[in-house]
Amino acid sequence: MSDYNSRKLPVVNLTVNATNGDVDKSIIALGDSVEFTPDSSGIGIVTASIENVKCSVVFDVVKSDPEITVLADDITYGEDLVVIVSADGIVAVNVTVGDETQEVALIEGMASANFTGLAVGDYTVVASFSGDDNFWNATVNATVTVTMANTTIIANDITTGYLSGEPLVATLQDAQGNAISGVEISAVVENISETLLTNENGEVSLNIRSLPMGNYIATFTFAGNENYMESTATANVMIVKEGTIITVSYDSSAKDVVVTLTSAHGLGLSLTPVYLTIEGVDYTLRTNSRGVARLSLADLAPGSYTASISYNGNSRFGSGNTTLDIEI
Predict the structure, then answer these.
(1) Which CATH class is domain 151-240?
(2) pTM above 0.70, yes or no
(3) CATH architecture of residue range(s) 69-147
(4) Following DSSP, what letter does each residue of 118-148 receive, concatenated?
(5) Pick the residue with more confidence: 233 or 213?
């Protein structure tokens, strides 16, 4: 830069400003450079001035292609697909996976979209931008795969009384421990073989009431389907004599000892002998249809007594005994 007489000027600083954009320096020396960043397409102007001398450069700012990046990792069935989109200068994009499209807003150049319930298969993730005053429209694709999910059957060992009615329960879960409902599981133990449907908790219940006493191995199998891998599990089953409960009370108004004999599951044992000893005298009682037997103590003198009651058990039910203190 020289004056009007073509004499060299001394070192001076110039003031720089811009229209429709910003410059990285507002004060520069002769020979320095500045970087101009436009705000939008159209006309951009950079002006350097000193006192009443100005020099301007005019730019024709045109639209540019946006730089859009899409990131999405493969998932297994049941997981959410998270799509990360990054781009500078763009307000929002549409993200499409399968037949679902979500519009997401970019904050500081980043946005994410979540997709749920995707079936097993390969998908194209499409991030599309319709364009604006500064950027052309653009579309960026990525591919993801939803793979089959692993499954686990939980079947706990069981020890139960013969004809007790307690079922054998198994639970089907995915790799995250979530219940898998509405699918078929085959269950086999000895001569029992059934196909069962899992409930909302992923459970199936196998009726093993008909199994004789003994030890068995139960096998549960899930054959898999279009979304889940197959799995199998075994459980040890032990059928034993069912425990018994002897309940004894004294009916003071009738002067009767009342004995009730039930199974561990509350079934009254009918027409079954129970043995009672009081004051050194042994009695054999037989329960009625409800498992109840009575013995009159009307002949005993007033006083304190202890009654001993026992049941010897049989091929199905275990033995038991108890005592009762009686005040007459």
Answers:
(1) mainly beta
(2) no
(3) Sandwich (2.60)
(4) PPSEEEEEEEEE---SSB--EEEEEEEEEEP
(5) 233
